[in-house]
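As a warm-up, study this chain.
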Amino acid sequence: MTRAVTKRRRSTRERRLFVLDTNVLMHDPAAIFRFEEHDIYLPMVVLEELDAHKKGMSEASRNVRQVSRFLDDLMRDATREQIESGLPLPNHMSGNHGKKPSSGRLFFQTQQLSIQLPENLPGQGNDNAILAQTLALQALHSDARVVLVSKDINLRIKAAVVGVHAEDYFSDRAIEDADVLSPGHEALPADFWERHGKNMRSWKEGTRTFYEISGPAVGKWIPNQFVYEEREGGIEAIVRKLQGNTATLEIVRDFRGDKHGVWGICARNREQNFALNLLMDPEVDFVSILGPAGTGKTLLTLAAGLVQTLEHNRYAEIIMTRVTIPLGEDIGFLPGTEEEKMEPWMGALMDNLEVLTQSSDGGSWGRAATNDLLRNRIKIRSLNFMRGRTFLNRYVILDEAQNLTPKQMKALVTRAGPGTKIVCLGNIAQIDTPYLTETTSGLTFVVSRFQGWGHSGNVTLVRGERSRLADYASETL
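Now compare it with the structure written out below.
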């Protein structure tokens, strides 16, 4: 940072100087393009940490290499004077999360700043070095607001202690608050028909019943959203078409009776019935089902997949995968083929298959034969080998999807070929991946981005149906 920077700062006091921590760039390699008109500063210790993490096949290592390529492009043919005065940041990213294009400058640490660590900041670790750099920049640019941006909570706490303003990195959020994520269903107000039933039109197409409704409430609806009345025997419908303030509703199928079950499984509540309607709809290519443990996400999805694969022949096979993040200590490498290595992670699949086959006739031999038949049509695959693949006429189940990053989610969903349906299951309250939160999870990202597309649907399950013990534990523990 030189005098040219200080002079420029005085003429544009509204701008800020953001000091980026290494973990921000490892989390989002395009972070340097996400700060609109503000300037960015990279301490030399950050470049050293990036160099130390460039090797490997992990997501973080790939992001580090992408950051290095971005920086190399910006510095190409730049002179020493241009680097000292700041490199202009282009609007590199076409999709910038709705923010203004980047127009600030990127500064590197080109000289040794006068640094004196506070007495309450002992040691010479990298985090302390970044804090010391930020303190020196605050003293050097008193007319600017210097902000340290880090995904490390402990570093932000230390920054607050020594008097440095620190913030989390927010630009990767799919939504501002997880509470605004659409549950996929909405209760109709008590006076709905009085306000919207005047010019209503209804008709039948085979066994399907449709309503065409106009009114103010329609403007808030999205395609494949469910609407219902709270009262006994009230309407339950799905929004099939929207045109202005007119919506076409279709009465949903009822999977709650024993005669209308799916592979012997009946919906136990309204939300489960909505989920089965989406899972059994051939026009819906992407389904996301959210909800806490015990709400029936995996069981409903697997039952719908078996019916459409074995009885309707709509799909060639079921492919199930998930992120391999252990709950406790890692047990190390596992022997065997790809499917054998993934099997310990697929306990949910095995548990639900037992439920789906327990009513098979023929005793233990009959159940064993049924299990062999089902296993031949259900393939367990690892996410590590998904790149470059194309799934044709497959029913793909992605379990524990909340642990995926948006980039990983995109890589998986784009594997879908003609006739393929992808179902993402997860609970955004149980995220195990470091630096992912409810607002930055790949599951939140895909739910929010697919919202409004006519061939996708989302349902949030609420009621636990596992057992009275599990329900009580969820509420009290």
